[in-house]
Design goal:
Alpha-D-Glucose-1,6-Bisphosphate, Chain A, domain 4; 8 strands
Length: about 280
């Protein structure tokens, strides 16, 4: 018990009261700290979400104008009536070469020449061709590759790939890839629109992940086409990588041409499934 003075002076607080006051102050300080920490954490999460959303938005429309994003393309109707989880990504790039120079590079893309993107990630480490490969035939409706089957062609101008139903990660995803060349400013405007949808509760998450990954790969791909067309024109040989005749020299994942001939490694990816879908659609009858 603390000392007690007589007269008008107040009693001096005892040790127990001092400890109680100290604990109360500490609790108040801890609570305020936790509240401040929570507020700061929420602000950081919010800022991160906004930043990621902004990056996705920029990636999905990289290089394209509003007019290019609004213009109709052949594959726009392929996903009608699909699930709510969907995405439409339109990107574009200017190439200082005429369309007739760019077209051969686009025509062999994914059909035995590789993907012109990050080869270690999407081509099994094989180096995509840096010349127009002699043994790859011209594109035909019904050609199948990792991105589906070729459903529409405007020779020298446009290609539309259709992937009907790819099951993975607990969802079924469909995808359309529209490529288009347009003469512009003494060169070529290359436009690509990739649209997809996904089913189920994980559909929205799959679509967001698809947007992020595709933005990284597709932008690199556009730059790869630009670099090849501008630097090499339509050359038919690469002195640094002479053709060996091997059908998987420039591309790992299988592609099956309309004729039934193939390139890449048989069974790698799902080209055989997409060819079967094209056959069911009556393409080869």
């Amino acid at each position: 018990m603390g000392l007690v003075y007589t007269g008008t002076e107040e009693r001096t607080p005892g040790p127990r009261l001092l400890v109680s006051v100290l604990i109360a102050l500490m609790m108040k300080s801890t609570t305020e700290y936790r509240m401040k920490k929570a507020v700061v954490g929420a602000a950081l999460v919010g800022a991160l979400a906004v930043g990621v959303s902004s990056l996705i938005r920029r990636g999905t429309r990289w290089g394209s104008t509003e007019a290019e994003r609004m213009r109709p393309l052949p594959g726009d109707d392929y996903l009608e009536g699909g699930p709510a989880a969907h995405s439409v990504m339109t990107r574009a790039i200017f190439i200082s070469a005429p369309p007739e120079v760019v077209w051969p590079w686009l025509a062999q893309l994914g059909r035995g020449a590789g993907w012109y993107s990050y080869d270690l990630l999407d081509n099994g480490g094989r180096t995509s061709a840096r010349h127009i490969v002699s043994w790859i035939p011209g594109p035909q409706v019904g050609d199948a590759a990792a991105v589906g089957w070729l459903r529409n062609i405007e020779p020298g101008r446009a290609l539309t790939w259709w992937l009907p139903a790819d099951e993975a990660l607990g969802t079924t995803m469909r995808m359309v890839t529209d490529w288009r060349l347009e003469a512009a400013g003494g060169g070529t405007r290359l436009i690509v629109r990739i649209a997809g949808d996904a089913t189920g509760t994980v559909g929205p998450l799959v679509i967001r992940g698809f947007e992020i990954v595709d933005s990284i790969m597709a932008i690199r791909q556009l730059r790869g086409i630009k670099q090849r067309a501008e630097a090499f024109g339509t050359r038919t040989a690469d002195p640094k990588a002479p053709e060996t005749g091997a059908r998987d020299q420039f591309q790992l994942y299988e592609t099956i041409w309309n004729t039934g001939q193939w390139a890449g490694v048989p069974g790698r990816e799902k080209a055989i499934l997409w060819r079967q879908d094209a056959e069911a659609a009556g393409i080869f009858s």
